[in-house]
């Protein structure tokens, strides 16, 4: 039996003459952590606002538990929202900020104290009840905003880039905390971000969006390892995207060489796009290289070196724990499992922001 909680069916949204959403179809499961991921202006926040009832779609249907919810006002949807700007009440202390919704619902004081205490424990802020809001740090205010949202025990929590105002270390800490809270609460989280690391770290499911369309839906592992088009491959982490020819099942030619791969189901001699992640290109010195190239630049990234290597008329991004000096010649090897084949697409919105492996080649051709 399906545990689907929310379903969006051909949701379209137009603002003036601009189509912001162009037919969104998405299924969200009960108790799932789903992230809407994409660049600014792709329609992810508009999608979130439609789910919350803050926007009404131009066309299409929204279902909760198979009941059409298009015309249900926000306060009847059992949904709460945490915004990037936390919108806390500066004249109320921590306790009263969290208790605000419960007082509006006219719950007994005993029940309010119980729920606020539970919420403070969940966000790891017990004992902070009487603190003024302006005495709390950014990370603490973010936790208070979450506590205020969950204290009403919603079925769904919407989070619109809530970590955007935090510094890097605190943001990473809060990614772990949010996932822990979601699992402990057992409610559905729908999260909006343009940060790929946040999406991959926290989510059960990621929906990658671009120009008002959903490009791919899947687990973080699937999205990273099996991108369905060049945009997803390029947006989720760094990628080398190279044009190639699928000779036949399990064999592809690109960068002037023929490689074994694990993909099948393409037509013989079909033009394809080939994706190779930077960390999957091995620098070898044992004579097993398939390509050779000259190191252009090297940057230390903490856990690895990032090198730009010129080979076969293209620049390749390579991540390696091996350091090579600029100007040196290196051997490169790519294993079959690390080569991912994608169909060519005519959809301009699924094209990558910039194809790393071919960018320099295109620039030289233009000159």
Summarize the structure.
This protein has 367 residues and is α+β, with helices and mostly antiparallel strands. It contains nine helices and 20 strands.
Task: Write up what this structure looks like.
The chain is of the alpha+beta class. It contains 9 helices and 20 strands. Helix 2 packs across helix 3, helix 2 (94-104) runs parallel beside helix 4 (138-150) and helix 3 (109-122) crosses helix 4. The protein is globular. Mean pLDDT is 90; it is low at 354-367.
Chain oligomer state: single chain
User: In percent, how much strand structure appears in the residues?
Assistant: 25-35%
Shape: globular
Average pLDDT, all residues: 90
Kindly state the number of beta strands.
Answer: 20
Order of helices and strands: EEEHEEEHHHEHEHEEHHEEEEEEEEEEH
- Which residue ranges are poorly predicted, with pLDDT under 50 across at least 5 consecutive positions? 354-367
Q: How large is the count of helical segments? A: 9
> Share of helix among residues?
25-40%
The first-to-last residue Cα distance is 59 Å
Pairing-aware structural class of the strands and helices? Answer: alpha+beta
Task: Report on the biggest sheet.
Answer: 6 strands, mixed
Radius of gyration, Cα only, in angstroms? 24 Å
Strand order of the largest sheet: 6-7-8-3-9-10
């Amino acid at each position: 039996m399906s545990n689907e909680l929310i379903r969006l069916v051909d949701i379209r949204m137009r603002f003036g003459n601009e189509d912001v959403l162009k037919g969104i179809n998405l299924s969200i499961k009960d108790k799932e952590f789903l992230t809407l991921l994409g660049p600014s202006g792709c329609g992810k926040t508009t999608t979130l606002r439609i789910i919350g009832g803050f926007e009404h779609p131009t066309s299409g249907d929204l279902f909760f538990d198979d009941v059409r919810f298009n015309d249900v006002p926000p306060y009847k949807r059992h949904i709460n929202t945490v915004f990037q700007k936390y919108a806390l009440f500066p004249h109320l202390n921590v306790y009263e900020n969290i208790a605000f919704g419960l007082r509006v619902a006219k719950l007994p004081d005993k029940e309010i104290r119980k729920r606020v205490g539970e919420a403070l424990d969940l966000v790891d802020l017990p004992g902070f009840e009487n603190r003024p809001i302006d005495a709390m740090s950014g990370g603490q205010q973010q936790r208070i905003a979450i506590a205020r949202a969950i204290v009403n025990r919603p079925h769904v929590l919407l989070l619109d880039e809530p970590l955007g105002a935090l510094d890097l270390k605190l943001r990473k800490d809060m990614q772990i905390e949010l996932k822990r809270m979601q699992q402990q609460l057992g409610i559905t989280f729908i999260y909006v971000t343009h940060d790929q690391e946040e999406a991959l770290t926290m989510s059960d499911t990621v929906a990658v969006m671009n120009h008002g369309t959903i490009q791919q839906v899947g687990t973080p592992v699937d999205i990273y390892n099996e991108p369905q088009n060049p945009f997803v491959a390029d947006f989720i982490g760094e990628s080398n995207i190279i044009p190639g020819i699928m000779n036949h099942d399990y064999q592809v030619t690109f960068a002037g060489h023929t490689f074994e791969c694990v993909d099948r189901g393409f037509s013989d001699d079909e033009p394809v796009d080939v994706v190779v992640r930077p960390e999957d290109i091995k620098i070898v010195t044992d004579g097993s290289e398939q390509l050779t190239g000259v190191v252009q630049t090297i940057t230390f990234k903490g856990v690895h070196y990032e090198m730009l290597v010129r080979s076969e008329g293209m620049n390749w991004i390579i991540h390696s724990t091996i350091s090579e000096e600029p100007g040196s010649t290196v051997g490169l090897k790519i294993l079959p499992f690390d080569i991912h084949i994608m169909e060519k697409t005519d959809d301009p919105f699924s094209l990558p922001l910039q194809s790393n492996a071919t960018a320099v080649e295109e620039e030289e051709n233009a000159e």
